[in-house]
Amino acid sequence: MPVLAWRLWREGPAQRAQRFGQTENAAPVWVHGASNGELTAAKPLIDALLDSDPKLRLLITCNTVTACAMVQSWALERAQVQLAPLDLRWVLKRFLRAVNPRLLIVIENELWPNRMAMMQARGGAVAVVSARMSEKSATNWARLPGLASQVMGLIDMFCAQDAASQARFAALGVDKSAIGPIVNLKSRTAPGAFDKALFDAYAQILPRDSTVLAASTHPGEEAIVLDAFKTALEFRPDLRLILAPRHPKRSDAVAQLIRERALSFTRRSRAEPPGKQVFLADTLGEMALWYELSSLCFVGGSLVPKGGHTPFEPIAHGCVVLHGPYLENYAEPYAALDAAGAVTRVASAKDLTQSLLSLDTGARHHMAAQAREVAGELHAPDRLKPIAAKLLKL
């Protein structure tokens, strides 16, 4: 609650009003995704929904202001975007009365009990698309079997990201009749939008062949990445590192790690240009730009037990993906990519240094092309059309 109060205090009155359910955006279909990553992945599904019915109107909600701005930049016809209402019954009553949706489509794991129950009580349907569940999360849910069966029983249509997640959700109570095909929206990710003028300016300073990105890093990973990078600099002094922590609020602590290694750096949050050995990308909503500038991308959350993050976004931008051993969140995609030799596994600073130095231009281009091919094979884009049609029949 203190975190929620602090966030509400920081936001403006318009944002607070949306959090408390005030809206004028009536729409028959409500699509919800947590933030930038989920909604970027959901963009092809949103397009398929709008293409399926030329009269359809959507309301898209998310949890962050940056995600709202991103969706607004898509300039979608017949779709509005706003912050999601709090999962409080009196807030949702106001929101649902104004929006009057007949269908809620949840992207990935935003399973809010009141939201789902009140949709069902109004005669609406709830669909969950591209859901994932790690073994750890399944164990936590299983400790509350009553709540798990109640929440899972509210789902009218369910599409998991992978077979393992599907089995875990089914064991927790998703009805067999609700289970649809495997749908991993993040495998369909197109290159994200980025500031072209800024890219042109930065690309003059950061040649792609010598630029490495560490994306969405967690505590414990930055030190490994920086140690590996510093060693690699002894052999490749032209290398440059873009370091993008998962949570920019940690940027001061990450900056201290850089100083301790006597590496020169600048910070994006201070509007400082790149050009030093390390560029600390401590902002939100610009990851597509960092992907586009880099030839190699270490995907964070994988050298420490966080389950890893999606490989598909960097792959869409032509990056070669490096990852650690902790991949529970995306186990099947990484297994397919590893089997094809399209990504590289690292388990230590030494491994990472070796990868930074051994992957020449030819190897990178081959691996990037192979990764795109594997991502395309995992899910063909036209499979979303029948999914969209089935959703709209609920």
Compact overview of the structure:
By secondary structure, this protein is an alpha/beta fold. It is 45% helix and 15% strand.
CATH superfamily of the largest domain: 3-Deoxy-D-manno-octulosonic-acid transferase, N-terminal domain
Radius of gyration: 21 Å
Oligomer: single chain
According to DSSP, the number of beta strands is: 13
Enter the CATH topology name of the largest domain.
Answer: Rossmann fold
Give the helix proportion (percent range).
Answer: 40-55%
- Major sheet summary line: 7 strands, parallel
Domains (count): 2
Strand-residue fraction? 15-25%
Principal-axes geometry comes out as: globular
Question: What order do the strands of the largest sheet run in, or round the barrel if closed?
Answer: 9-10-8-7-11-12-13
In whole angstroms, the N-to-C terminal distance is 35 Å
Structural class: alpha/beta
Name the average pLDDT: 93
Main location: membrane
Enzyme class: transferase
Catalytic activity: lipid IVA (E. coli) + CMP-3-deoxy-beta-D-manno-octulosonate = alpha-Kdo-(2->6)-lipid IVA (E. coli) + CMP + H(+)
Pathway: Bacterial outer membrane biogenesis; LPS core biosynthesis
